[in-house]
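Late entry, evening session. Most of the bench is empty. Finally got around to the prediction I had been postponing all week. Sequence below, unchanged from the version circulated by S.P.
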Amino acid sequence: MPLTDTAQDVISPYQEVDELRSQINDANYRYYVLDDPYLTDADYDSLMQKLMALEEANPELVVPESPTQRVGAAPAAGFSEIRHATPMLSLGNAFNDDDLASFGRRIAKVLGQPASDIEFACEPKLDGAAVSLVYVNGLLVSGATRGDGTVGEDITSNLRTLRTVPLALQGENIPALVEVRGEVILPHRDFESLNDRVREEGRKPFANPRNAAAGSLRQLDPSITATRPIAFHAYQMPQISPDMGDTSHGQLMERLRGFGFIVSKELSIVKGIDGLIAYCQNLGAKRDDMLYDIDGAVIKVNNLTQQQQLGFLSRSPRWATSFKYPAQEKATPLIGVDFQVGRTGAITPVARLAPVSVGGVTVSNATLHNADEIERLGVRIGDIVIVRRAGDVVPQVSGVLIASRPDDTKAITFPTHCPVCSSDVSRQPGEAVARCTGGLVCAAQRKEALKHFVSRKAFDVDGAGEKLIAQLVEHDWVESPADLFRLQASRLALLPRMGEKSALNLVEAFSKARQTTLARFIYALGVREVGESTALALAKQFRALDTLMSADQVTLETVDDVGPIVAGHIRAFFQQERNQQIITALLDAGVTWEQEDAPQGDLPLAGQTWVLTGTLETMTRSQGKARLMALGAKVAGSVSKNTDCLVAGANAGSKLASAEKFGVNILDEVQFSERLGGLESSG
């Protein structure tokens, strides 16, 4: 009950503060964890105001775990790193009943007992941002993102702003050390209200609740995070010391609930393969009606001793897997079609739809890909179309309800001139994509090309984000990438929210970016289908820009990973006079790089052929490929009897089977990283 005036007259400020904190923490627990509020919003606000007034009058009573200290840190300059005590691993995937049955049988085989006797803990697979919290003597001391699974970003100040993250663990006999892992999510209702607020402020709305949750956690100013309606849901306790005697995952989750955390109400303990299948089917039936996004179910062996017996693979526990649901689809009218222009001039038709909720996200636009796809679907403006969304994939029109076609539909006419710059639109024989021929004359292409040019893998210009590039193009201050290096602070300071100091910092960032590498320079030019690894291969093979620019088709095709089509794109790019002028202007602006070293025959992997497959957690496949090539290896796209080694990441498929068939040496990601590290350090 709230404190009475009589009680306040007879107790000390310390006692009153302690009682108020206890009431507020209990109210938070009942509201967020038990979903059983007992205070009105007005009563809660009254308690908080009293506590704030008492702490202001008695600053010596303020402690970090007080409910008033949810936002106390100043904005950070950047995030430091936190190394996880145990890796935050990924899970394997099951997509159907047969996959679930296979998982159950594998578990049973290792444990040496019937699958029907094994207990599994099942809960929704939340679609948000994974984080780890560490408590020492009951108090929150750190919070981190998942990062690469081994090292994450320190976002403690931001996590402290979440009312669903206890600043101090509740209950008696609190362990000295507790680590809690879970997901930060944004419920559907709150996602829509947040986007409404963002639109009112004239900013770009979030694409989906997952992006909104992750973006909210990575704000440098915790006070911004505090305004976002995100919530933490706990699903694991990898560390607890001293041991409290829990023998199952289910018991650990109940302990977390008692500590003050939200634990899924859908958590259920089932037995055997039939229990797994039934749970996943029942949860799937509820999916559309849930208050937050899920993309599947997480399944864990419930018994902790059995978990230890089963152990881990290189990147995932053997005792757990995730069941993935198929993409969600809804029907809605197609109101119209807009045409967007990309970096390479590609014209993409985008369907304007009557807003429809698909997987908890309101969708009003969806891609139609290209003219061939429009013809294949037979879609017309006014049709009732099927919209498909799977996770973070851009929503797409996947079908048309022909039987429901209205009488007044209209054909979709592909433009013959660019909708942005009015240049001719051309479509090469054999290509599905139509393109604007305007090049950098086209503001849309120029904006996308400049964003690519300053991106992390290209010139990596600190502070040159999407909004800045858009402003520079709108003001027509930048016609080509070279103009970026000639920008003056006095002009930049005129831009909204820029300021003199920020303008000077940006000019300095461009100045530093002038010193680059040939590989980054090639990548930054934005040649069609020339990614990071192909740019590195070109730099190593030719070692000089002039040599690359004058290379013929046959010579280009001798480069690893460059086939006839990519060689044609490279050749065509460097033959265009406009591109030659851009390169000359960049060199005149002071862009330079050190001469690439000549290839050495004694590189440790010279003469070897490697193949990468599956998903890597600690690096991208492109990064792995680049590191292999730097050590002299050829990286191929398919496995043959001449392949020396296959690197198998998560969800490796047919290439892994081929490698086993040919007797190829196979490395998992941990072994691959160790091999790379040893070779690179010895070199």
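Two things to note before I forget:
Residues 609-682 form a domain with the Rossmann fold fold (CATH 3.40.50.10190).
Residues 319 and 666 are 23 Å apart (CA to CA).
Will write this up properly tomorrow.
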